[in-house]
Amino acid sequence: MLFTSVLRALPAALLFSGTQATPLDFESRQISIDAFITTQTTASINGVLANIGGGSKAPGVPAGIVVASPSRTNPDYWYTWTRDAALTYKALIERLVHGDTTLRQKVDDYVSSQAKLQGVTNPSGGPTTGGLGEPKFNVDMTQFTGAWGRPQRDGPPLRATALAIYANWLADNGNKTYAVNTVWPVIANDLAYAVQYWNQTGFDLWEEVNGSSFFTLAATHRALAEGAALATKLGQTCTGCATAAPQVLCFMQSFWTGSYIDSNINVNDGRTGKDANSLISSIHTFDPSAKCTDATFQPCSSRALANHKAVTDSFRSVYAINKGVAQGKAIAVGRYSEDVYYNGNPWYLTTLAAAEQLYSALYQWDKVGSITVDSVSLAFFQDLVPSVTAGTYAKGSATYTSITSAVKTYADGYIAIIQKYAPSNGGLAEQFDKSTGSPLSAVDLTWSYAAFLTATERRAGIVSPSWGENFNNLPPTSCTGTPACNAKITFNVRATTTFGDNIFVTGQLTQLGNWDPNSAKALSASQYTSSDPLWTTSIDLPASTVFEYKYIRKTSAGAVVWESDPNRRYTTSAGCGSSATVNDTWR
Ligand SMILES: *[C@@H]1O[C@H](CO)[C@@H](O)[C@H](O)[C@H]1NC(C)=O
Ligand SMILES: *[C@@H]1O[C@H](CO)[C@@H](O)[C@H](O)[C@H]1NC(C)=O
Ligand SMILES: *[C@@H]1O[C@H](CO)[C@@H](O)[C@H](O)[C@H]1NC(C)=O
Ligand SMILES: *[C@@H]1O[C@H](CO)[C@@H](O)[C@H](O)[C@H]1NC(C)=O
């Protein structure tokens, strides 16, 4: 069974309570991290709910719509982003499946609002022609028509994952009907988008780089794998999911440089590629039933730990507030060191991602029962326990204990950074100033609050259900990308010929020889009669393609005779695997 719900009750402090956050005065900042987590958790769940339609900071916004931030100027984040909303709802749905039933209506509102949004035609396309890749909408659910970095292909798989957790829970709790009739159709649209577009470039989660983003691919792999299993469980079909998933995983391997994850490839962005994009990928695809798999970059994998060090170290020298902090101690983490947005600062959600990966790794080592240190991860571990050497250390051994205790302290250090730079009312903005530590950019960023919730739940050992990593962690030996989407065209031409003549077709496409008579495609005369001089052949051509072509006749003497002008013109249909016939007469 793929989805083993980890049924653990939430500690009371993590459950939504209507009480206000206790203001923290300066002295009380010395309070322990546990006390900070208790108050900041309340502020964070309240912060999330305030920004969803009907909430105190989202007046007039439809139910189920997540506003990125109530900030309407400098910067204007008064929109709903598919990505931010999905990650936020993933956190809420996790809390629901762990027992917080007060969230049920909000989750149902999300399902119905997203079903409607998927139908809104926008600058990225219509409902089945790419529109699901639109990054953001106005909060009233109308299309946003301004210039933007579009498409962003992470939204659909992230939403599919959030909803798959809900659908699995419904099915496991006697409500397969709602899962099949109401939730699955939304998931199915997102998965169909992912199957069709994963092998095309798009903008990354920071909306800047137009290329192949590791985060987008990692989110896609998880969604397709769990989507295929969910379809089976619900008696539905997920066309292409099971065949695309291993190909996505195959492609993901090429982001690994040997020492860290290059977060954006297939683009010349002039950056090192060390980017919190990859930390967020690792926490999003964390599977509590997984081993420390390198291929899926699980939080405890050697690759993900080496990458954690590479990414966090890249911020040690760029922010004044990190100056003088020793190697192996927590620091403020931003998006990527070359960032210039608001002059480039640390973000709450990226600092929290650094903590969450480590808490998730601790959970995995505990389940696996050992820690393996190898040449890839050695430097990460030596920052924390300088005497450690490569080897496997079983739970209970002194080395295992010293590593896990050092990792816990290191992870808590990142929470302490949040404690130090979060304002006393618990409001989490987008960024904090790299020199002064003061909150910066959008106030009350929904994603910042959601990031606090998930990081501290992992610290408490509360995890998202398995997505089936154990059955989806073997990349095929060769990467083929997306199989071509072809339309089979039968070319019929009536051409009266004399014995020894042959008819060919050529034109603007590689499949037709690019107008080169030597590469033209031969037609067959097997059905040729004097009353119906038919020459015919069938050729696979790319779907949705306009091209020009002509027939040519090659004589037995070797001469090439072209049809008269103008060129013929044809458009193949959009359907992969479709077939069509053209009936021409030689001219
Ligand atoms: C199934 O779930 C939906 C959505 O929460 C709810 O409205 C409905 O009452 C549930 N049905 C049953 C039989 O539990
Ligand atoms: C993104 O890159 C692709 C090719 O790499 C290009 O076709 C497309 O026009 C680019 N989009 C934008 C908005 O720059
Ligand atoms: C498509 O997939 C192939 C095979 O993994 C890969 O080499 C190529 O870079 C991918 N292209 C894009 C744009 O995703
Ligand atoms: C082309 O001709 C064949 C018979 O030779 C016929 O079955 C078919 O319908 C024709 N197609 C078109 C598009 O005219």
UniProtKB/TrEMBL annotation:
Family designation: Belongs to the glycosyl hydrolase 15 family.
EC category: hydrolase
Keyword Lipid biosynthesis recorded: no
Active site per database record: D204, E207
Ranges of residues in domain CBM20: 481-587
Name by which UniProt lists this protein: Glucoamylase
Enzyme Commission number, as recorded: 3.2.1.3
GO molecular function: glucan 1,4-alpha-glucosidase activity; starch binding
UniProt xrefs under CDD domains: CBM20_glucoamylase
Span of the signal peptide: 1-21
Binding-site positions, substrate: W148
